[in-house]
Amino acid sequence: MNIRPRRNRKSAVIRAMVEETKLGVENLIYPVFLKDGKNIKEEVASMPGNYRWSVDKLLPEIETCVELGVRSFDLFPAVDESLKDKTGTYSWSSDNFYLHAIRAIKERFPEVMLMSDVALDPYSSDGHDGLVENGKILNDETLPLLNNMSLAQAQAGIDIIGPSDMMDGRIASIREHLDANGYTEVSIMSYTAKYASAFYGPFRDALNSAPKSGDKKTYQMNPANKREALIEAELDINEGADMIMVKPAMCYLDVIHLLKETFPVPVTAYNVSGECAMIHAAAKNGWLNYEAAVYETLLSIKRAGADGILTYFAKDFAQMTQR
Ligand code: PBG
Fold first, then answer.
1. How far is the CA of 289 from the centre of ligand 1 (A)?
2. Distance from residue 200's CA to the centre of ligand 1 (Å)
3. Which pTM was predicted?
4. Which of 7, 27, 87, 159 is the most exposed place for a label (fewest CB within 10 A)?
5. First-to-last C-alpha distance (Å) of the chain
């Protein structure tokens, strides 16, 4: 044998020198759940180490994260059932605790990046991302509602809007509405290839946002389809998306790779709640090494082509790579 690939793996120094993929905490966005009230830190049962926070408790947690190098956060509101309605009016109400929380966080930590979901589901009495009428999720009628939600978030100081609703035409609609109101600097990271996935279960438990009837298959993508992601990406980019996202991540590495190879905009991936829960469950049983599995998972998503990764492991990753 004159070619022996093992020679490039023979010491830690050589392995580090030829390592192709670098993953750092700066690539990670940490999703966190917010709840109205004071002194609240409730663990999400299926996602150990992830909590619903009231803003007073979240501020010191953000400080800890920032010290660890985690400086990007995606905030999700757990909304009281009594405040939900068909059109999600609470999402742009001046009383909305979540919008107040964004302001409070930005005031205390102006340097952090705050991102926010745009979709009706946490605010909708139907639990769908769009407006429901006679069992149908209406597309064009949903757009003005998403515009209102986006503008309210922009006014509260959000850095990146993340439309996760999968309505057609929503990126153009939101972009125009933000620009018309002077928010040209607010970015859009579009949930571009968002699949109708079985892996969102723990997230819907965290926010109590599961659909009351029907499923999300008429707007989220079919897991069988890859080429269709090209259509979605082209539309989103032409409509004004600054970054495009694939979601979930672990089962969709091929889609991440395809979009990264095809389009010049940054590609991100959402390592979703069910993917996080699986690793925790196996680790708890002693079937996987938690830290090794987390590292390999995030590294693989980066290797597939993701520039940024939304992941519930962000804080743990920061902690384990600092040791
Ligand atoms: C809401 C939304 C969902 C997630 C992010 N934004 C759930 C859904 O579409 O039902 C899932 C995130 C996760 O599972 O971690 N539109």
1. 27
2. 6
3. 0.96
4. 7
5. 40
Among 22, 113, 12, 23, CA closest to 317: 23
Query: At a CB cut-off of 8 Å and minimum separation 6, what does 151 contact?
Result: 92, 177, 178, 181, 183
Structure confidence by residue, pLDDT tens digits, 234-279: 999 999 999 999 999 999 999 999 999 999 999 999 999 999 999 9
**So what's the pLDDT on residue 208?**
87
Q: Indicate which atom in ligand 1 lies nearest the CA of residue 220.
A: 9
Is 194 a known active-site residue?
A: yes
Domains assigned to the chain: 30-322 (3.20.20.70)
Q: Write out the two tokens for 185.
A: 């600097």
CA atoms within 13 A on the CB side of 307: 13
- Compute the distance between CA of residue 70 and CA of residue 322 in angstroms, rounded to an integer: 12
Q: Whose CA is nearest to atom 7 of ligand 1?
A: 200
**Residue 126 near residue 86 (C-beta atoms within 8 A):** yes
Q: Could you tell me if 120 and 142 are in contact, meaning their C-beta atoms sit under 8 angstroms apart?
A: yes
Give dist(CA 194, CA 247) in Å, integer: 5
- Ligand 1 centroid to 203 CA: how many Å? 6
Whose CA is closest to 194, among 215, 174, 165? 165
Q: Which residues are annotated as a binding site for Mg(2+)?
A: 232
Which protein residues touch ligand 1 with a CB less than 6 Å away?
117, 119, 121, 129, 164, 200, 203-204, 272-273
Q: Tokens for 239?
A: 């409509």
Q: Strands of the chain (E only): list them.
A: 28-35, 41-43, 51-53, 72-78, 113-118, 131-133, 136-138, 160-163, 187-194, 243-247, 267-271, 308-311
